[in-house]
Each structure stands twice: as structure tokens, then as C-alpha cells.
Specification:
434 Repressor (Amino-terminal Domain), 9-stranded mixed beta sheet, two-stranded antiparallel ribbon, about 30% helix, elongated
């Protein structure tokens, strides 16, 4: 028996459906389906996709997670076989926000779709954020002033790429770079232009096919030892950065390069 066969058997039993009815739903014989459930045969991709859609669960969970150990009803289903995000609430019914700290950041790429990994992350509640799925990510470097190295950026999960608005900031999770916080633009076909607010760092492109997750910036959690004066200076600095960016856009629009 494989993890996959254990999973589809458990799902069928939980839904109280016979093997015959499940097989009919996939337009295959019962004998063929039984081989998937007892682990003697593996389904082709088209059948695997049908199984995932039938149970409203993702393929990656079917293949890599023992779903008997999690409550599938506590997962946020995003449709079209996309990622499933675990949702946890506190005693007041407010969504808990998982915080990806610097110490666990390296494991996020392999654990972002694993409910057990997500459950082990530190959690906080920020009731003012309202409806949505939120997660906190650590800031690295100086590419996005006024946010500083060590701050936590809280983002709201973006389900569709079409929701990305040009010029707004997002946390981007990609196959190659991992986790970055940048300003995004959709002026490239099948790709996003990723830019830093610190113009020392050049903009670059990320293919849509390489994107695993997008989180829209909502708020930040700064270090407690920052002084008010430092925050004010950062705000002024950020204002000039935004002004410089606007001037650059105006120059580009009229054909000036310097």
C-alpha cells in the first residue's frame, strides 16, 4: 500500500461511497479502480486529476500527506486543484496568522503545502485585518525601505494572478528564488516585473510558471527597539524613494533616459 492508495481509500470511506460508484464517476471499471486503492497500480494523470477534483483536494496532498492525520474540513479550498491552506482560529474566532520566522524560512519552500509544517509555525492574531488568509514573512536586506532587515511583513493570500495590481507590493514565493518582497508589475506576457524600492537593485522578470504563492502586503511588524525618530526618518526616505520612482516613470513615458 502506498500513501496515495491509503489516502483515496480513506477519502472514499469517509464519504461513504462504494468502489463501484467512485469508478463510475471516473468512467473506469471497478476492477481498474481497485488496483489504485490497493496500491498495485498507479493512475495516469487524467485520472489522478479527476480523483483530486472529485474529493475537492489537491494532487500534492494526495501524494505527499497522510490525510488521515489532518482535518480536511479545516482547509481552505481554492479550486482548480490549487494549493490548500490550513486555517486556524483563536478562542474569539479570529484567524490566526502563521509567522514564517528567519529560523524556519529555509524550510518554507518544501513545507508551504504541508498542513503539519504550517501548524508548527508561530501564530498571532490581528483582528483589524478582516476577512482573508494572512501569513507573516521576514524581511531581508535593504531593498524595500522603510522596512528593515528583521521586520515581519504580513500579507493576504492572492488566489489569482489577475488580482495583482501594478505598483503594489507583494511577498512572492518562487521555485528559484524562494521568498522575496517586491513591487510587482504585469507589463510582461506570462511574467511579472519585480522591482525594489531601493534603486540600487535592478528590476527583473519572474515567469508566472515559477510562482508558487503571492501574498499582498497588508501591514508590518517592526522591531520593538526602533525609535520614533528612526521611523520618521524612514518615512521621509520612503517619500523621496516614491517621488524618485514617479519621476522615473514620467521620464520613461516621454522617452527620456537620463
Amino acid at each position: 500500500m502506498s500513501l496515495f492508495s491509503d489516502n483515496i481509500r480513506a477519502l472514499r470511506i469517509n464519504h461513504k461511497i462504494s468502489q463501484e460508484k467512485v469508478a463510475q464517476s471516473f468512467m473506469i471499471t471497478r476492477g481498474r479502480y481497485v488496483k489504485y486503492e490497493d496500491g498495485t497500480s498507479e493512475p495516469p494523470y487524467n485520472i489522478l486529476k479527476k480523483i483530486a477534483q472529485f474529493y475537492q483536494i489537491t494532487i500534492d496532498l494526495l501524494l505527499s500527506i497522510d490525510i488521515r492525520e489532518i482535518d480536511v474540513n479545516d482547509l481552505l479550498k481554492l479550486g482548480n486543484n490549487r494549493l490548500v491552506l490550513p486555517i486556524q482560529v483563536d478562542e474569539m474566532g479570529e484567524n490566526r496568522i502563521e509567522i514564517v520566522t528567519q529560523t524556519v524560512k529555509a524550510g518554507y519552500l518544501s513545507g508551504y503545502a504541508d498542513p503539519e509544517y504550517i501548524e508548527q509555525l508561530q501564530q498571532i492574531s490581528l483582528p483589524f485585518l478582516g476577512v482573508g488568509k494572512y501569513r507573516g514573512f521576514p524581511v531581508e536586506g535593504d531593498s524595500m525601505p522603510p522596512h528593515q532587515d528583521g521586520d515581519i511583513i504580513v500579507g493576504r493570500y492572492v488566489e489569482h494572478l489577475g488580482e495583482v495590481l501594478d505598483g503594489k507590493t507583494y511577498i512572492l514565493i518562487t521555485r528559484n528564488e524562494g521568498m522575496v518582497y517586491k513591487r510587482l508589475n504585469k507589463n510582461k506576457k506570462n511574467a511579472l516585473v519585480v522591482a525594489s524600492d531601493n534603486y540600487f537593485y535592478p528590476a527583473y522578470e519572474v515567469k508566472a510558471s515559477d510562482i508558487l504563492e503571492i501574498w499582498e502586503y497588508q501591514c508590518s511588524i517592526a522591531k520593538s527597539d526602533k525609535k520614533t525618530e528612526a521611523l520618521e526618518n524612514d518615512a521621509i526616505k520612503n517619500m523621496f524613494v516614491e517621488l524618485k520612482r514617479d519621476i522615473k516613470e514620467v521620464k520613461n513615458s516621454i522617452g527620456l533616459t537620463n
